[in-house]
Known about the structure:
Blueprint: H1 5-25, H2 35-49, H3 54-62, E1 68-74, H4 78-89, E2 94-98, E3 101-107, H5 108-123, H6 127-134, H7 138-158, H8 162-181, H9 194-222
Amino acid sequence: MIEKKKEFFGGLALLIGFAVILIVIFSPVFEGQNGLKYLDNLYNSISKGSAYYIPKVKKEINTFAGTSVNVTIAMSDDGQAQQTAALLMKGDALVNVSGTQLKIEGDLAKILSNCLADADSMYFNDGQTVAAKYGYNERQVLYNWWQALKALNKNLTKQKQFKAASAVDTVATKAVETSYNYYRIEPQKISDRFFIVFFSLVFYVIYTLWYGFAIMFMFEGWGLKLEH
Length: 228
């Protein structure tokens, strides 16, 4: 039995409106995408615009010019070892490949500078340059860099070359990971999309409250009450 028709049907109308908007949100009407995908891409694009750390990392790496490394690292399989050797040799390192093992000798700054050059190209979505440089998929190039840098960091830490290990980790996290995750996303400044960002945040709050009030009014119309 509906005790308060005004509250009940008012809540029902709010709930129907909520459902209609929800259907629109999940429809491909936002530049060919649904609302969630559109906003996800938008926020990824904005976050990429503020995640370009490579120039700062380059300055840090330059301080290691002349710092020699002599390490042995292991890759996942023979194929990856061969691919990774090509990356390191582009940085003027001497690399001896034995199965999955890579024995590396070279200047740390030169090795990392080559890595940063690849990461920089990928950050600006120029994967073709990276793929042409090594002859295989650009995403795989960055993944191989990431694997190699993690292994190099671990090896240098064991050798108690902590500053060098820290520099390697910085390149892996602030350059390679960032470029890999944001590859093919176009960077944007939040100031350029301020209105839609502001609207989406305000809409999220209002839309959440909308659903809550719809349920509350319907329950009140039914005569349901919270008792202490």
